[in-house]
């Protein structure tokens, strides 16, 4: 199984936990790696989770609590839990009635596995697709129209008008 499929399978496995409704895997910079969520924009969840965890890390350091492990946000409509997954970040979305101990137990195991998979993904040679084939060439683009920069009577360049 290639790394991308293994990551997707690990995220799908979290849905087997009762009341877990999705998950997002992001880089430490908040860029989306993979997701298994409905009804929300995964890019937004990834970016906001990274910002929240960054604040949590700083908070833990500032008060001398050691290394950050996870951040929990509980709201009336459910909870979000973000876990360190190696160099990445796993965020799990659950319903309000979810058994948080079970969510933690399963998610911590999955986060560890995802951390290993993200390391494998990062170790792949640059410019290679996960299957070993080079990525397709980008489509050719038409050149941009040129601007007319001849001086006008006022001494300022003018843009060509269409």
TrEMBL record:
Domain of life of the source: Bacteria
Span of domain Roadblock/LAMTOR2: 7-94
Pfam families: Robl_LC7
Disordered, as annotated region: 122-162
Taxonomic source organism: Asanoa ishikariensis
Protein name: Roadblock/LAMTOR2 domain-containing protein
Organism taxonomic ancestry: Bacteria, Bacillati, Actinomycetota, Actinomycetes, Micromonosporales
Ranges annotated as biased composition (Pro residues): 132-142
InterPro entries the UniProt entry points to: Roadblock/LAMTOR2_dom
Gene3D superfamilies per UniProt: Dynein light chain 2a, cytoplasmic
């Amino acid at each position: 199984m290639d790394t991308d499929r293994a990551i997707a399978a690990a995220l799908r496995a979290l849905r087997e936990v009762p009341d877990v409704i999705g998950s997002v895997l992001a880089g430490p910079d908040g860029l989306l790696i993979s997701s298994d969520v409905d009804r929300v924009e995964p890019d937004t969840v990834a970016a906001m989770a990274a910002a929240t965890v960054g604040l949590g890390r700083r908070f833990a350091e500032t008060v001398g609590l050691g290394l950050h492990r996870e951040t929990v946000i509980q709201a009336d409509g459910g909870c979000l839990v973000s876990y360190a997954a190696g160099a990445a970040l796993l965020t799990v979305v659950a319903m309000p009635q979810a058994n948080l101990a079970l969510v933690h137990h399963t998610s911590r195991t999955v986060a560890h596995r995802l951390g290993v998979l993200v390391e494998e993904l990062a170790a792949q040679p640059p410019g290679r697709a996960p299957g070993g084939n080079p990525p397709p060439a980008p489509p050719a683009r038409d050149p941009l129209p040129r601007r007319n920069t001849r001086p006008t009577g006022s001494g300022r360049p003018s843009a060509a008008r269409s």
